[in-house]
């Protein structure tokens, strides 16, 4: 995230959550009841937008932070589209008023005094950058508030030293799109406290997610199993054994994979997949996690998958 100075803006992604007030460009609550407290999401990329969409759909107000030029207006449109698509697919609760979205361009503009329910960092899969962002916001966050890194592969304890409060730090691994996939991997670091774990579970329960708690390790469970498999699938194509379409068709038809590994790569984002594979390779030494040349070439060419309009497949429009 690169700094820029404009004042905070607000998006009308939906009507305000019950009991919330507008004050000074931020979401506040007269009584600061837990159900009215905002979720702060750091980073308005694919996962930040997905998590924000999920929270808003379940009545949780969100303060979305991104300092990069022009990112927030694009994110606002994607959130609206996500809410529309999820509504069409019957994935949203019908008995909840959509939460209010506040956009700010720097962490200093967040209304920290209102006491957010939790902070979720959802920037790119880079341990150094994640640690830097968490270190920047931690002093402003009330002790006991969960500090959550949304990551597909980076061990949580690697980030714990950055914040000085390792008991408040834990990880989530939301799948993409977050508002459609009901299960969330919740990562407990070796120093994560029970209070932070319990508060995060309560938040995820409110978002109507099924939570599975796992211990800290590179890639946790889902990425440690899935990402090397996708790497192997890409290698099969690279070696000329089968086409992209045939690899996915065989995995769907013979093994019950819902979409096929290569279409899944497009949904994850091939750039994100490569970042995750490098994390796994450098921390485990497993050669199966070293990204194959086909994946690397797609990243070099900007063919990142669904979000860029082209990856292993071509899409009518980027999302």
From TrEMBL:
InterPro entries in alphabetical order: 3-OHacyl-CoA_DH, 3-OHacyl-CoA_DH_NAD-bd, 3HC_DH_C, 6-PGluconate_DH-like_C_sf, 6PGD_dom2, NAD(P)-bd_dom_sf
GO molecular function: NAD+ binding; oxidoreductase activity, acting on the CH-OH group of donors, NAD or NADP as acceptor
Domain of life: Bacteria
Ranges where the record places region Disordered: 1-31
Pathway named in the protein's UniProt entry: Lipid metabolism; butanoate metabolism
Claim: Phosphoprotein is one of the keywords in the record: no
Annotated site residues (Important for catalytic activity) in this chain: 173
Positions bound to NAD(+): 43-48, 66, 125, 130, 152, 176, 307
Keywords annotated in UniProt: NAD, Oxidoreductase
Pfam families with a match to the protein in the record: 3HCDH, 3HCDH_N
Domain 3-hydroxyacyl-CoA dehydrogenase NAD binding: 40-216
GO aspect biological process, one term: fatty acid metabolic process
Domain (3-hydroxyacyl-CoA dehydrogenase C-terminal) ranges: 219-315
Similarity comment: family membership: Belongs to the 3-hydroxyacyl-CoA dehydrogenase family.
Annotated protein name in UniProt: 3-hydroxyacyl-CoA dehydrogenase
Protein's organism: Streptomyces sp. LZ35
């Amino acid at each position: 995230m690169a700094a820029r100075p404009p004042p905070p803006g607000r998006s009308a992604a939906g009507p305000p959550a019950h009991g919330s007030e507008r004050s000074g460009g931020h979401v506040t609550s007269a009584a600061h009841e837990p159900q009215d407290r905002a979720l702060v999401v750091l980073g308005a990329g694919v996962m930040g937008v997905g998590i924000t969409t999920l929270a808003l759909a379940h009545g949780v107000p969100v303060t979305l932070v991104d300092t990069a030029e022009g990112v927030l207006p694009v994110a606002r449109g994607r959130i609206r589209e996500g809410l529309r698509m999820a509504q069409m697919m019957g994935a949203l609760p019908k008995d909840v008023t959509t939460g209010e979205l506040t956009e700010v361009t720097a962490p200093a503009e967040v209304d920290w005094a209102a006491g957010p329910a939790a902070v979720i960092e959802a920037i790119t899969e880079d341990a150094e950058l994640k640690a830097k962002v968490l270190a920047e916001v931690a002093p402003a966050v009330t002790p006991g508030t969960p500090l959550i890194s949304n990551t597909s592969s980076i061990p949580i304890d690697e980030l714990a030293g950055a914040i000085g409060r390792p008991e408040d730090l834990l990880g989530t691994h939301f799948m993409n799109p977050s508002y459609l996939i009901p299960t969330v991997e919740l990562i407990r670091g070796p120093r994560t406290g029970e209070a932070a774990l319990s508060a995060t579970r309560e938040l995820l329960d409110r978002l109507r997610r099924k939570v599975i708690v796992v211990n800290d390790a590179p890639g946790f469970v889902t990425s440690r199993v899935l990402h090397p498999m996708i790497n192997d699938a890409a290698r099969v194509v690279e070696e000329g054994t089968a086409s992209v379409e045939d690899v996915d068709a065989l995995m769907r038809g013979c093994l019950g994979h819902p979409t096929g590994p290569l279409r899944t790569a497009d949904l994850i984002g091939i750039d994100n997949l490569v970042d995750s594979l490098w994390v796994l390779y450098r921390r485990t030494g497993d050669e199966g996690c070293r990204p194959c040349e086909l994946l690397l070439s797609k990243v070099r060419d900007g063919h990142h998958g669904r979000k860029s309009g082209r990856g292993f497949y071509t899409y009518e429009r980027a999302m």
